[in-house]
Amino acid sequence: MPRASLLTRPPWGRPGVKAVVTAGLFVTFLWNLRCFLNPGKFSREAPKHTEPLVVLVWEWPSRQAPNVSGDVCRELYGIAGCWLTTEQRLLGRADVVVFPHTRLQPGRDRLPKEKLPGQHWVWVSLESPSNTKALERWNQTFNWVMTYRRDLDIFIPYGKLVSNQSATVNIPEKTNLVSWVISNYHRAQKRAEVYKNLSRYLHVNIYGKANKKPLCKDCLLPTTSKSKFYLAFENSIHKDYITEKLWRNSLMAGTVPVVLGPPRANYEQFIPADSFIHVDDFGSLAELATFLKTMNSSRYQQFFAWQKRYSVKLYTDWRERICTICMAYPSLPHGHVYPNLERWFNT
């Protein structure tokens, strides 16, 4: 056959091409049919669940695990379609498996031998990067991260402000200026340095194990509420790392927090700008001390204006935290895995 006729001939009419095209179309048809019948397996979107989502907590974050097998998310928090369990024998039925970092320290030998198809593993931690060790061994292991960071998969803060239009301001009676509850005092920490220098200019009432003045379980809030100001100093400074020192020890107690942690702008993403004092607001600790000691009653009351609009919600029950996985599940990136968990968490 002349060469010109080959060039002008339709490609599907050439020898051998027709068979290849036909086979390709058939493969494409089979793939589209497979995706249609099982869309969740071939998509980064969450598969639609007709049965309750089974969330297995491999080991409970705290030492004493409650009996959580059942529909506790609906019973306690009104979250339907979420079955929570700690029974490891149900691994084969679990859609999500939760691994608290505090329980991972012994090593991989305590994890399941393999991740089942379609199953997602969640790494959980409320500690800052400074206090989270041995992350390098968990590369290419977890699909999702659950911690205090807002830019992650599942956000679990220590606390938050919730709308409450009570229009009531409650300021407990004050008997001293500044207090601080500290259990683990390390001189190398920035908060220890700031406290040492600040105490040169004013007296700080210290409680907790570090000062050999431990408080009973129900004594914390009544004690800190007697102070005008509370040193809500974090043990390390990281983005979004704002703990119960702010939410419980200070705001819930009815005292004004003097914070040491991430920048002011980061705090203002959680609480109103006029509800706290940041150490960085002042050129020196001497200026901070003078500001605290000379504040008049009218200025002090302004720090509690947030109470007219909000109240504090604490997250203390791990069952509530784990149940949030079910609410987040449809929007989570399915098929994703963290290649370098340590590098990401330290960013």
Describe this structure in words.
This protein is an alpha/beta fold. The chain has three domains: 3-37; 53-156 and 317-345, 3-Layer(aba) Sandwich (Rossmann fold), CATH 3.40.50; 160-314, Rossmann fold, CATH 3.40.50.11660. 26% of the residues lie in helices and 17% in strands. It is built from eleven helices and 13 strands. It has helices at residues 3-8, 17-37, 72-77, 190-198, 220-224, 244-252, 264-267, 285-293, 297-302, 318-328, 341-345, and strands at 53-57, 82-85, 96-100, 120-124, 144-147, 154-155, 159-163, 176-181, 204-207, 227-233, 256-260, 277-278, 310-314. α3 (72-77) links the parallel β1 and β2. The longest helix has 21 residues, at 17-37. It catalyses: an N-acetyl-alpha-neuraminyl-(2->3)-beta-D-galactosyl-(1->4)-N-acetyl-beta-D-glucosaminyl derivative + GDP-beta-L-fucose = an alpha-Neu5Ac-(2->3)-beta-D-Gal-(1->4)-[alpha-L-Fuc-(1->3)]-beta-D-GlcNAc derivative + GDP + H(+).
| Secondary-structure content class | alpha/beta
Query: What is the residue-mean pLDDT, rounded to a whole number?
Result: 85
Radius of gyration equals 28 Å
The residue fraction in helices comes out at 25-40%
Task: Tell me how many strands there are.
Answer: 13
Number of helices: 11
CATH architecture of the largest domain: 3-Layer(aba) Sandwich
Query: What is the topology, as strand order, of the major beta sheet?
Result: 2-1-3-4-5-6
**Mind telling me the CATH class of the largest domain?**
Alpha Beta
The largest sheet, given as strand count, sense and whether it forms a barrel, is:
6 strands, parallel
Determine the CATH topology of the largest domain: Rossmann fold
Name given to the CATH homologous superfamily of the largest domain: Glycosyl transferase family 10, C-terminal domain
- Terminal-residue CA separation: 66 Å
pLDDT < 50 stretches: 1-44
Q: Given the C-alpha coordinates, what overall shape results? A: elongated
